[in-house]
Design goal:
Elements (H helix, E strand, L loop, with lengths): L2 H18 L27 E6 L8 E7 L2 E7 L12 H5 L1 H5 L8 E3 L5 H6 L3 E3 L2 H17 L3 E6 L4 H14 L2 E2 L9 H11 L4 E4 L6 E5 L10 H15 L2 E6 L4 H5 L2 E4 L5 H14 L9 H6 L5 H8 L3 H13 L3 E5 L9 H14 L7 E7 L7 H12 L3 E7 L4 H4 L6 H4 L5 E6 L7 H10 L2 E4 L8 E6 L2 E5 L13 H13 L7 H13 L1 H10 L1 E3 L6
Parallel strand pairs: 6-7, 6-14, 9-10, 9-12, 10-11, 14-15, 15-16
Antiparallel strand pairs: 1-2, 2-3, 4-5, 8-13, 17-18, 18-19
Helix pairs in contact: 5-19, 6-19, 7-14, 10-12, 10-13, 10-14, 20-21
């Protein structure tokens, strides 16, 4: 065939292929063969969306997971979710990378026994073990500690929902003591103040979206205070619908302050004087919507106005104008927290804030305890100090530490927890990521723990979280199987409980959850919750 004939042939073939493709819809082309039948509704190459929960922090935002070829590729906020309503912070957006992180722990690890000097120099001080060996090691250590009269303890990050119930069950069956939970932002003084005023240890749901006047004192609501994503969404709605005025008081510069309508600077420690003035203003001018008991009124601090002016740096006119603006608002809201409640007189500041909320009628309206966040199991620095003392006295056998990655980086030095932790007889860490190229980090883990158990990512696991009273987020796997040889915390506890009791078989955590959900919510509500990603009881059903 000469060159001219070849070009003619190519032209005719190309035209025929174009004509033959006419009328074929691209979405109907299924050219990717599957070895196993795909789930119903699956179309090769097209995205599916599943509802899940972000587990990067305790806020409990709902997420929509974009899945392509059975692999999650993108996270977005879940539309109409009661907490975040479609929004998602940068940390939540990036949390998908934790699933694929190259430094995830891929199986159980333990320190090398009699490691060579060369191993220590290279940082190669951990060796893999099977799950069977890991489980048996823990079971033996639990029984040995029991026989020696030592206490076995379980220290976790803030936990709610079914996993919290399972930890309680595991603790009862194995004789393990569940310690108060550790949370870096525990709001300890704020919780203590609400307990003193209202008898509850929970944190309320602050209805920013309903407010037309917002006063924040130290609470960095767009950064670390409770749920910044929800706060940001509510602020936008309040500005659009209520013409919100927001005044923020703080002792230093913050992103929250720059976003407020008015930013005021208060010297550190003077917040209590400001709140005391507001409280006395409403009580003294007969503007209180709720009365205080006589003994409480008599014990209120009554600093002279000159002292309030000196401490706060505000003039008497500025103080009166602030009180008048709050009193004139239809739906005022005061939020006290952050640095203002984490200082020497933080408890007094939080207590005065709770009293102002009560006398102005905010409690029950813009300060909503029907959707409170349960912090009843979260401890404080005193609990960690007591734990460290027991460690120092060598009273601890097995110590489980889970979901507290920041524990030894954020715990105050005066607790002496870090220096005494090694005195526990057997230490178990539940982790997901460990940079084994970081020699110092590996060295610290090999010296600190006797066993390291890898946790599955939330997108690989079943679970739930009670974000607020009556609001339960559902977590379900979006991939067919775990990427590495990891386990969920629930599966680990169920298997350890089985071995300790000598039972024949353990139920899978997924089956345990589904039985609990069905008994709690009913079949129809559970089916709906798996689709929406959450279950919500009506407000007020406490």
């Amino acid at each position: 065939m000469n060159r001219r004939d070849f070009l003619k042939f190519v032209g005719v073939a190309s035209s025929a292929s174009v004509l033959s493709s006419c009328g074929v819809e691209k979405s109907t082309e299924k050219i990717i063969p599957l070895l196993y039948p795909a789930e119903e509704g699956y179309i090769p190459g097209e995205a599916m969306y599943k509802s899940a929960t972000c587990s990067e922090c305790p806020a409990g935002c709902g997420v929509s997971v974009k899945v392509v070829e059975f692999n999650p590729v993108k996270l977005e906020g879940l539309k109409n979710h009661p907490v975040n309503d479609g929004a998602l912070c940068l940390r939540g957006q990036a949390s998908l990378m934790r699933l694929y992180h190259p430094r995830r722990v891929r199986g159980p690890l333990r320190p090398k026994k009699g490691g060579l000097v060369l191993d220590k120099m290279s940082g190669d001080m951990l060796e893999p073990v099977t799950w069977e060996v890991a489980y048996q090691s823990i079971t033996d250590a639990l029984k040995a500690a029991r026989d020696a009269g030592k206490s076995n303890v379980y220290l976790s990050g803030r936990t709610s929902g079914s996993l919290s119930a399972l930890i309680d069950s595991f603790s009862r069956e194995t004789g393990v003591e569940r310690l108060p939970e550790y949370e870096a932002f525990s709001h300890a003084n704020l919780r203590a103040a609400y307990r003193a005023v209202l008898g509850v240890s929970s944190l309320p749901s602050y209805k920013v979206a309903n407010a037309d006047f917002l006063l924040t004192v130290g609470a960095d609501i767009l950064e670390t205070f409770m749920n910044p994503v929800s706060m940001g969404q509510q602020l936008q709605r309040a500005r659009e619908t209520n013409n919100l005025t927001w005044i923020h008081f703080e002792p230093h510069v913050s992103l929250t302050g720059f976003k407020a309508s008015e930013r005021k600077i208060l010297p550190p420690g003077s917040e209590a004087y400001l709140l005391s003035f507001l409280l006395n203003y409403f009580v003294g001018n007969q503007l209180a919507q709720n009365n205080l008991p006589a003994n409480v009124r008599e014990s209120l601090p009554d600093a002279p106005i000159e002292e309030v002016v000196r401490q706060t740096g505000m003039s008497e006119d500025e103080l009166n104008q602030l009180a008048q603006r709050m009193g004139a608002a239809r739906n005022p809201l005061l939020i006290v927290g952050g640095v203002s409640t984490q200082q020497k007189n933080g408890y007094e500041t939080a207590l005065l804030g709770a009293l102002v909320q009560w006398v102005t009628g905010m409690t029950g309206s813009t300060v909503d305890f029907s959707r409170a966040e349960d912090y009843s199991k979260v401890g404080n620095v005193n609990d960690l100090t007591a734990f460290a003392q027991r460690l120092e006295n060598e009273q601890i056998g097995v110590a489980f530490v889970t979901r507290t990655d920041t524990l030894f980086r954020t715990v105050p030095a005066q607790t002496r927890l870090s220096e005494n932790f090694a005195k526990a007889a057997f230490k178990v860490a539940f982790v997901d990521i460990l940079d084994q190229n970081d020699k110092e980090l590996v060295k610290s883990y090999s010296e600190m723990y006797d066993l390291i158990l890898p946790l599955s990512h939330s997108l690989e696991s079943w679970g739930d979280a009670e974000v607020q009273n009556g609001l339960v987020n559902i977590t379900q796997p979006v991939i067919a199987q775990t990427i590495f040889d990891t386990r969920s915390e629930g599966d680990i506890l169920l298997e350890l409980s089985r071995l300790y009791r000598g039972a024949e078989s353990a139920v899978a955590y997924a089956d345990w959850l589904k039985t609990r959900w069905t008994n709690t919510y009913g079949e129809a509500a559970l089916t709906a919750a798996l689709q929406t990603g959450y279950y919500q009881r009506p407000a007020g059903a406490v």
